[in-house]
Amino acid sequence: MFSQSEENYLKAIYHLGNPSQKGVSTSDIANKLDTKASSVSDMIKKLSDKKLVEYKKYYGVNLTKKGKLIAASVVRKHRLWEVFLVDKLNFTWDEVHDVAEQLEHIKSKKLMEELDSFLGFPKTDPHGDPIPDKDGNLQTIEKTLLSNLKKGESGICIGVKDSSSDFLQYLDKQNIKLGDQIKVMDKEAFDESTHIQIANRNMNISKKIAANLYIQLQ
């Protein structure tokens, strides 16, 4: 068994990891978890002793196979609970993160297997993020940010980069949701805002908004 704190560190490294990088820096982990660098160093040593991470000075931290499996399990539980809260308990997609943060540390494998079955084996959470399977495998979804699309290109909105409550509430106010077809009508050179057509509506969105919407090209 692993502590909630240990699981949170493994999950943070999992989210920060990038195959093109040598490893995750301790400063990035500290920023992600809003903690001190000294606390990160202490935890990394503890996780390394348990063979959950590998750390090399100047190269950063990488999850071991065992560490990655544990991290993926936590992420899986978090995202399944988010689906349950939205689909079955009428939570909105901007309300579920903090609740799922608490529920993701439940240890019962049977509970999670039954929850997955009860929900119909969902592939993505309410924010469009893929749900790891019980073996830790993560489905790769081809996507790009709306800000990368050129004039005339279109696709389906399948996720958000920023899952903060403020951003999700903004999308609700603008009636922008997952599954919407979005076409780039024009781009303004002055402020890099984007004129889009979405669900038969025309609207302008800022560069910041376009840089936080994931699109699957058609």
Provide structural commentary.
With 218 residues, the chain is an alpha+beta fold. Among the domains are: 4-63, Arc Repressor Mutant, subunit A (Orthogonal Bundle), CATH 1.10.10.10; 144-217, Ferrous iron transport protein A (FeoA) (SH3 type barrels, Roll), CATH 2.30.30. Helix content is 41%, strand content 18%. The protein has helices spanning 4-16, 26-33, 37-49, 65-89, 96-103, 109-118, 165-173, 207-210; strands at residues 53-56, 60-63, 144-145, 154-160, 181-187, 194-198, 201-205, 213-217. It has a 6-stranded antiparallel β-sheet with strand order 3-8-4-5-6-7. A two-stranded antiparallel sheet has the order 1-2. Helix 1 packs across helix 2 (26-33). The chain is globular, with a radius of gyration of 19 Å. The model has no long low-confidence stretch (mean pLDDT 94).
Beta fraction: 15-25%
CATH topology of the domain at 144-217: SH3 type barrels
The number of helical elements comes to 8
Principal-axes shape call: globular
Task: Report low-confidence residues grouped into runs of 5 or more.
Answer: none
Main beta sheet strand tally, sense and closure: 6 strands, antiparallel
- CATH level-4 homologous superfamily of the domain at 144-217: Ferrous iron transport protein A (FeoA)
Rounded to an integer in angstroms, the radius of gyration calculated over CA atoms is 19 Å
